[in-house]
Amino acid sequence: MNPARSATALSLAAGSSRIPLFDLQRQRVRLDADIKARIDAVLAHGQFVLGPEVDLVEKRLAAFAGAGHAIGVSSGRDALMIALMAMGVKAGDAVFVPAFTFAATAGAVASIGASPVFVDVDAETFNMDPADLERAIEETMAAGRLTPRAVMPVDLYGLPADYPAIAKVAAAHGLQVLADSAQSFGGWIGDARVGALAPITATSFYPTKPLGCYGDGGAILTESDELADAVRMIRSHGRQGTGDAAVVLGLTGRLDTLQGAVLLAKLDVFTEELRRRKEIAATYSAGLNSVVTIPRIPEGYESAFALYTIRVADRDGVRARLEEKGIGTGLFYRFALHQHPAFKDFDGRSLPVSEMLADEVLSLPIHPDLRDDEVERVIAAVIEAVSA
Ligand SMILES: Cc1ncc(COP(=O)(O)O)c(C=O)c1O
Fold first, then answer.
1. N or C end of the chain, less CB within 10 A?
2. Does the pLDDT at position 202 exceed 50?
């Protein structure tokens, strides 16, 4: 018998089907009628580029986040690039990014000709360490090769970065702050939502994100009219409104109308889905606290729980044993940024926490349609896998 089929037969024999890391189909079935009706409406009106759904979803995103403007763009990575361009970041500038994040964070910086400088992260929250940010800025100034220009904290796994502390360091050195909130739309600090935690914020609607569309999409949120105007021009070939002249260098970076339609359907249930993600995370934390290192959510912070990520010493062994039990997991991330071949030219700092996390992190299944019995099965399987 082929091994895949025999594994399926075994898990069915045990009375349980596989639990994948993500399951987008359950949500699609739940929202099927609404999503199809909204897509049909786009097909009927035919305004596929910057149609009314984009306008409406931008208004709803801005209202949800409490930001003055939300501008729909083509992806999270493009959101970062467009925001950096709107901020005037350029070749010769240093942009400080956490070393433990998705490659797109530093890729966006390098793509516009600026240089990412890697900053270590906190081992408990997984987010940028403000003390190491201070050191990185001082080292960069002392080296004298690059001009410190901006800080780009990442809200890893959905938890907002320490914006209050980072804003202080940034202000002391005259740096701009751009939030890479690709994973955290829906998160909070105190009374302020992601989108209003930094002067400018980029987010992603990649399908597995807490608010995901059915393809690539993203948004930029800001309070600043000036930055919003620049972003609108850059996402549309650098043109102002429908004018023919390219006022600034731009790209084809708009959110598709069809993706806007999908997002409108998903926004209707987003608050409830965030609540369910939080509930699942709390159940995991209660069940796993004494077995593995669970994520720490600081007082006053709310994570959007794009991912629920534990730390465990024998990570690869635990992962293999979970797979045998039919539990899908993910490695976000197996490499710190400076360990990617693409970023070897930007290495040079000591980043021990990021390197340790790359060896220890393991993300467990989390999505709003995960059932309670499945959450319990994951917890039991992790306990067994860790003690094997
Ligand atoms: C931290 C981070 N930054 C940027 C991105 C890029 O977003 P996208 O995939 O929409 O381009 C992602 C996600 O995929 C991400 O996780």
1. N
2. yes
